[in-house]
């Protein structure tokens, strides 16, 4: 597969040398029927694993009845998902998009329109954190606080500024009259599985509320049960104005969205925002199954429990090349002293799929339905690799 034939594909991804052809539960299989334990979930997407019967049935049924009709019509499946999302999040309204980046673009537009309507043209700056990741489209990319993603693509849209992670003085120094919102990940995913401090976040949110600066939580990677709570910010005891979601919500189909509270519910009006595929009935049918399966107190408790089990195993390793184990629930990072890509490559050779986050962090995002026995099997592979490196 990796020969001249694949030359037609734009050279943006460093593909791993394996041809995966099918999956079942938390396992995937290659074209020689070799089996791999999946600690990646398609980067936090396949939360129900592969070939989940309820998800496949719902998606197939929707595909065979009404696959797509466009947003000039409302359909029952999309409405059902929107109701479900606003109910479980206690938010007032939702807009459905197709990806995380697009969800964040929408959130930025909503924040700026709110500020424009109330304060006029000069209050439009979006603060974000260094080491954050918010997507690849130009505004989301500008909000992303990592220079390595910014190379070559200038000029960038105006109206963005950056705050040091967990540094309240850095936040205060950026708090001018021109700031309309801040966007945060409760646990920075691409940035190396870095959780935000509770004290930092609560002070930021308090000051934002006092100054009518909107708080946006980007829950694209850490939301929808990944950390053992519905949203990552639920661990921090704060309430945002806007929440962005994607990845795990679809369980394998592209979907994203942003939710807002009552204060913002009438800011966007017809013509202000839109997308052809957003709220596509097939993606919504899959997302409804995901919410039903993941967002129950029993499943969330199990995720917490399984995450603690994996984290405990890793913490007990006590190896010089392991600097720190971070994360919550089934979103775990292993910071090492060596190149994480090397560990990823060795894991693949031994039948385990893992992700990296930056140069030195191995990122683990197993399907949320994974059983402890499979967690243990995956851990054993990692242990063997880490002990021999
Ligand atoms: C926190 C966060 N926000 C936004 C995005 C962008 O999502 P997408 O790739 O669906 O555009 C990602 C993707 O990794 C993410 O982790």
Automatic annotation (TrEMBL):
Location of N6-(pyridoxal phosphate)lysine modifications: 247
Signal keyword on record: no
Catalytic activity: N(2)-acetyl-L-ornithine + 2-oxoglutarate = N-acetyl-L-glutamate 5-semialdehyde + L-glutamate
Pathway the protein contributes to: Amino-acid biosynthesis; L-arginine biosynthesis; N(2)-acetyl-L-ornithine from L-glutamate: step 4/4
GO cellular component: a single term: cytoplasm
Subcellular location(s) of the protein: Cytoplasm
Domain of life of the source: Bacteria
Residues reported to bind pyridoxal 5'-phosphate: 100-101, 133, 218-221, 276
Cofactor (UniProt): pyridoxal 5'-phosphate
A Gene Ontology BP annotation from the UniProt entry: L-arginine biosynthetic process
Subunit: Homodimer.
Family: Belongs to the class-III pyridoxal-phosphate-dependent aminotransferase family. ArgD subfamily.
HAMAP family: ArgD_aminotrans_3 (MF_01107)
Name of this protein: Acetylornithine aminotransferase
Organism: Clostridium gasigenes
Lineage: Bacteria, Bacillati, Bacillota, Clostridia, Eubacteriales
Encoding gene (name): argD
């Amino acid at each position: 597969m990796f020969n001249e034939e694949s030359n037609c594909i734009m050279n943006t991804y460093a593909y791993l040398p394996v041809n995966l052809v099918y999956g079942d539960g938390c396992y995937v299989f290659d074209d020689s029927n070799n089996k791999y334990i999946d600690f990646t979930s398609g980067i936090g997407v396949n939360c129900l694993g592969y070939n989940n019967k309820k998800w496949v049935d719902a998606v197939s049924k929707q595909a065979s009845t009404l696959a797509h009709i466009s947003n000039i019509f409302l359909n029952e499946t999309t409405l059902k998902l929107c109701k479900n999302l606003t109910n479980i999040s206690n938010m007032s309204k939702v807009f459905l998009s197709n990806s995380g980046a697009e969800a964040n673009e929408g959130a930025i537009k909503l924040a700026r329109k709110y500020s424009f309507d109330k304060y006029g043209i000069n209050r439009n700056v979006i603060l974000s954190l260094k080491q954050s990741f918010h997507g690849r489209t130009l505004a989301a990319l500008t909000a992303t606080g990592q220079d390595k993603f910014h190379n070559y693509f200038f000029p960038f849209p105006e109206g963005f500024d950056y705050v040091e992670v967990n540094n309240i003085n850095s936040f205060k120094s950026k708090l001018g009259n021109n700031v309309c919102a801040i966007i945060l990940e409760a646990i920075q995913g691409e940035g190396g599985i870095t959780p935000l401090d509770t004290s930092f976040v609560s002070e930021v949110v308090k000051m934002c509320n006092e100054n009518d600066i909107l708080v946006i939580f980007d829950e694209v990677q850490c939301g929808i049960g990944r950390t053992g709570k519905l949203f990552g910010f639920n661990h921090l005891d704060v309430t945002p104005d806007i929440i962005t979601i994607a990845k795990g919500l679809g369980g394998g189909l592209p979907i994203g969205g942003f939710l807002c509270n009552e204060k913002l519910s009438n800011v966007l009006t017809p013509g202000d925002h839109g997308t052809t595929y957003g709220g596509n009935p097939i993606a919504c049918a899959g997302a409804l199954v995901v919410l039903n399966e993941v967002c129950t107190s029993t499943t969330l408790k199990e995720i917490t429990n399984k995450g603690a089990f994996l984290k405990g195993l890793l913490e007990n390793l006590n190896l010089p090349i392991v600097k720190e184990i971070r994360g919550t629930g089934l979103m775990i990072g292993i910071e090492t002293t060596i190149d994480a890509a090397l560990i990823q490559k060795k894991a693949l050779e031994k039948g385990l799929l893992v992700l990296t986050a930056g140069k030195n962090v191995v990122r683990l995002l197993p399907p949320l339905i994974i059983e402890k026995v499979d967690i243990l099997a995956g851990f054993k592979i990692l242990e063997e690799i880490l002990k021999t490196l």
